[in-house]
Amino acid sequence: MEFGTKIKSLRNKRGITQEALAKAMGVTPQTVSKWENDVTMPDVALLPELSVFFGITIDELFSLDAKKQMERLENRIYEAGLLSETEATQIEETLREFAKTPEYKAQALSLIAELHLHQAEIHKRMGAELAKEALELEPDNSSYLSDYCTAMESYIPDWNCRNHHILIQELQDFVKRHPDNRAASMWLLDNLMADKRLKEAEPELAHLAQIDTSYRPVLYRALFAAAKGDKELEAQCYQEIEDNFIEGKDAWVVQLSLAERETERQNYEKAIAHYEKAMEVQASPKFTDAPEAMAHIYEILGEKEKAVECYKLRIKMMREEWGIIAGEEVDEVNRSIERLVKG
To answer: How does pLDDT run across 294-343, given as a tens digit for each residue?
Structure first.
């Protein structure tokens, strides 16, 4: 049953008019009519009120449309900037209702996690802006400087603060339980190498090679060799990637990997060439990693106009490849453009 049909059915069972339901919900009769004709959906904030009004759970209210509603909630999370505390709470309460149904539990819990992470990311950006403003007023205040650098995810020399031992332990346990999970193995390798725990990383490299026949094990061997300072082995691995994986379905990701290598070596011209190739060979819908990275490079080089061009390209790709024309993702890119233009 479609949501509009469900609302109309419940209203008729109550024996009330669209006008009466509209008055109870604080909306216009035209709005209720649009709900019932599936033109629009109720605002998230109204879902608890609707479920109470009709004496059913939110899950029952949506019956077969639960997946559509969760998709709508996900879109709301990412299209919005900072959600008000009231709206964020209402979204979480709605998702927790969905989580009571085994079929939707994992997806609902994941969306609740994404909701909190989204809010935290926005708060962190706001914190950085405020700390920067405070620092401009009192440039010798080390506490303000610390707040700003923390919000901007600065490198921290203190090993106690930057090591990942808890995450590594949990990933090790996860990989033991799910040995064929490639993504988990890669996350584990990333963190082991970031923490310089190379002895533990070595057997994980062998494990990844057993479960993945793509370019990835070779790439991680190259990263491992770089971490050990073995430039010869690193070069051999990258040559193997170029010889065997530069064509095919993974070609664009391979180009990104080669671009990142050149970026870290500060060979920016070569890096940009790889990023441009990645955009060329990737099938639609294309991700926007490449223009974003190129914008960063041009900023580093002090070429602000080219950086702005890359950010505009990213907005164009978001629109043409993904149909994204507004929301926080677009706003974030526009803020970068504004920062560069003003600067």
So the answer is: 999 999 999 999 999 999 999 999 999 998 888 888 999 999 999 999 97
- Find the domain containing 336 and state its range: 274-343
Look at the alpha carbons of 241, 242, 244, 248 in this order and tell me if their dihedral is positive or negative: positive
Q: How far apart are CA 20 and CA 24, in angstroms?
A: 6
- Is there a domain that residue 114 lies in? yes
**What's the domain count of the chain?**
3
Residue 10's closest CA among 55, 46, 44? 55
Q: What is the CATH number of the domain that holds 290?
A: 1.25.40
In terms of domains, do 278 and 205 share one? no
Sign of CA dihedral 153, 263, 220, 318: positive
- Look up the pTM and report it: 0.80
Using the 8-state DSSP alphabet, how is residue 152 labeled?
T
- Taking CA atoms, 207 is separated from 112, 204, 211, 244, 245, in Å, by 33, 5, 7, 21, 20
**Residue 141 amino acid letter:** N
In a domain, 48, yes or no: yes
State how far Cα 51 lies from the chain centre.
31
Q: How far is CA 15 from CA 22, 63, 101, in A?
A: 14, 21, 30
